[in-house]
Amino acid sequence: MEEGTNGQRLRYADGVLGGPDEAERVRLAAMAEVCDPTTIRVFGDLGVDAGWRCLEVGAGGGSIAVWLAGRVAAAGHVVATDVDIRYLAELAAPNLTVLRHDVTRDPAPDGGPFDLIHARFVLEHLPEREDVLDRLLTWLRPGGTIVLESIARFPVDSAPHAPFRDAMLGIDQALAKTIGTDSGWARGFPGPLVARGLADVGMTVQLPTTGGANASARCWTLTLSRLRPHIRRLELASDATLDEALDQLADPSFFDVAFATAIAWGRVPVSGYGTSSQA
Ligand SMILES: C[S@@+](CC[C@H](N)C(=O)[O-])C[C@H]1O[C@@H](n2cnc3c(N)ncnc32)[C@H](O)[C@@H]1O
User: Fold this and answer.
1) Model confidence at 5, in pLDDT bands (50, 70, 90)?
2) How many C-beta atoms lie closer than 10 Å to residue 219's C-beta?
3) Is 88 left (phi over 0), alpha (psi -120 to 50) or beta?
4) What are the E-state strand segments in 19-60?
5) Ligand 1 atom at minimum distance from 119 CA
6) Rounded to whole angstroms, how far apart are CA atoms 189 and 202?
7) What global pTM score does this model have?
8) Separation in Å, CA 121 to CA 12, 50, 118, 214
9) CA-CA distance, 177 to 182, in Å (whole number)?
10) What is the C-alpha separation between 54 and 32, in angstroms, rounded?
11) With 50 as the cut, is the pLDDT of residue 66 above it?
């Protein structure tokens, strides 16, 4: 993993992803368009309902936090956290609180213990993901539910379109080498929840089709453009390959499968989660 100019390890928002660019708002919106329907279906299957207290970790553009606020209604409450709340600042609902919060080190947010904690595309980017998972479980009430979503690299390896495949693997390796992202972690789902003794554990996988200039293609185009300087600096793919991949993503007749999303869930036993974890 690389270090920044101050000698500290680079993090998600240190000029790698995130940040003040309007393109980042559009990227988060495209991500939500692709992924929200599946997330919402999982919440429905798990019985997320009026009155629940929910924590949305690394809320990004806030679409799921807003949906949850509607679902839990006036009797419930949603806390939406992120290290960067610029895209959450304008969210407004009487039962929705936005909090600048680093899940790796800040104390448990007010509003808990929670009935539901959800984190999508957050823990895979944090090298201390296993410790973060321990922390999150201590913030749930006994019987409370965690839902983890993470990108998973495995469909990319077999992509038949070489420029697209090499560019996607370039994204994967650039994130791994700069901020310590692990897109292989989710391949072991729901293992981290089973290992911690959770009840009613389950998982599903979403394989979004990328192409036809759809929202997934827009999202990966913006991600590739954003990471291009890192991919080139690390010599993970040539300019010609990246140009070809961008052309493929813009081609209405192109289709492939990019990263999968692995979704795992489980409930803390009613006797509570173990005592070895940090607050
Ligand atoms: C890929 S985006 C996903 C956004 C949103 N969860 C979604 O799925 O649409 C990752 C988000 O995690 C946030 N994040 C990164 N590191 C974090 C940390 N240590 N604590 C809280 N949020 C963090 C980023 O700022 C960003 O908004």
Assistant:
1) low
2) 24
3) alpha
4) 53-57
5) 6
6) 9
7) 0.94
8) 11, 25, 10, 20
9) 10
10) 18
11) yes
| Spans of all domains in the chain | 22-155+181-209+258-267
Are 249 and 221 spatial neighbours (Cβ–Cβ below 8 Å)? yes
Amino acid 121 reads: F
Instruction: Out of 9, 12, 175, give the residue to mutate to test ligand 1, the one with the largest number of ligand atoms within 8 Å of its CB.
Output: 12
Q: In this model, does residue 170 exceed pLDDT 60?
A: yes
Angle at 272 between CA 270 and CA 277, to 5 degrees: 160
Asked whether 232 and 113 are in contact (CB, 8 A), the reply is: no
Burial class (CB in 10 A: 0-12, 13-18, 19+), 27: buried
Q: Whose CA is nearest to atom 10 of ligand 1?
A: 122
User: 122: CA distance to ligand 1 center in Å?
Assistant: 5
Q: 199-206 and 140-152 as β-strands: parallel, antiparallel, unpaired? A: unpaired
Quote the CATH superfamily of domain 22-155+181-209+258-267. Vaccinia Virus protein VP39 (3.40.50.150)
3-state secondary structure of 113: coil
Which atom of ligand 1 sits closest to the CA of residue 31? 9
| Mutational test site, ligand 1, from 83, 103, 118, 218, max ligand atoms within 8 Å of CB | 83
| Residue pLDDT, tens place only, 174-207 | 999 999 999 999 999 999 999 999 999 999 999 9
Pull the structure tokens for residue 180.
């310590």
Q: How far is CA 174 from the centre of its chain?
A: 17
Cα separation, 116 vs 43, in Å, equals 9
